[in-house]
Every structure is written in structure tokens, then in C-alpha cells.
Design goal:
The protein has 144 residues and is mainly α. It has 12 helices and no strands. Helix 3 packs parallel to helix 6, helix 4 runs parallel beside helix 7 and helix 8 crosses helix 9. The chain is globular.
């Protein structure tokens, strides 16, 4: 990753995560950047309202990229999972949202070796009865 590009992008991460073109830049930074870059992106997501990003079309792609990123540290992925799954009402909103359901499904995917899976599964089990009446919620529950 070009050092100059990363230097220019890092101060604007909050705005770029939900931007139609900027979200591609942030995902590229997560894929090819250093662990320090990934840490800055995760912090920007948490500071900027990870719940809002995760329930928006473009922002949800950035959240997913942060969770899949090989350069992101496990502790940062766990911080994202804790923020996304910590509140039952918001978790239900996210799991029944057109875009957020993809983030929750990724967190709970039994086929992956995501470190976030135990946290997410426990949270989803707490709200399982609330998700079972939603079209998108039922899809998320299939990941369990």
C-alpha cells in the first residue's frame, strides 16, 4: 500500500466508510495495509457508530472487510463483535436488517474460523425467539 495514499486516507476514515467510492478505498486499505492501518479503520468504525455502518449498504461492506481482514488483530475483531452484539435490541435490529444481516451472519458463520463466533452465537441465542419471526432473522439463525 502506498504510504502517501494511506497517510491521506487515514484522517478521513469516518467519512470514507460510508462513501460510495471511499468505502472501496477503506476496504483496499484493510486488504493491503498494515495491522496499524487496520487498527485505525476499526477504531474509526467504533468511533463513528459501527451500528450505523453495519446497517448501511456501503458501510456494511467495510465492517465485513474489517472482520475478514488478515491484517486486523483478533483483539480488534473482538472489539467489533462486542460492539455489534452487546445490546440485544440493536442486535435484533441488525440481524433483521437488509444489510446488517450479512455482518451478523459473518460473525456467526459456523464454516469459518472467526474468533468472534462464540460471542455472536451466545448473543443470538439470547434473542433467538425475536429473530424467528423475521425473514432476514431466520436466515441469520441458520448460521447457528
Amino acid at each position: 500500500m502506498d504510504v502517501l495514499l494511506a497517510r491521506d486516507v487515514l484522517p478521513s476514515l469516518k467519512e470514507l466508510c460510508g462513501h460510495s467510492y471511499g468505502s472501496y478505498v477503506v476496504r483496499h486499505l484493510l486488504e493491503y495495509g498494515s495491522p496499524a492501518h487496520a487498527k485505525r479503520v476499526v477504531q474509526a468504525l467504533l468511533d463513528g457508530g459501527v451500528h450505523d455502518y453495519a446497517s448501511q449498504r456501503l458501510g456494511s461492506h467495510v465492517v465485513e472487510a474489517a472482520l475478514r481482514s488478515r491484517s486486523a488483530l483478533d483483539e480488534d475483531k473482538l472489539r467489533l463483535a462486542a460492539a455489534l452484539c452487546g445490546d440485544d435490541d440493536y442486535l435484533v435490529h441488525l440481524a433483521t436488517n437488509q444489510f446488517g444481516r450479512h455482518v451478523v451472519s459473518l460473525l456467526a458463520d459456523a464454516k469459518s474460523e472467526m474468533i468472534t463466533r462464540p460471542t455472536t452465537v451466545a448473543a443470538l441465542q439470547r434473542v433467538e425467539y425475536r429473530l424467528s419471526s423475521s425473514r432476514y432473522g431466520k436466515g441469520v439463525l441458520k448460521c447457528l
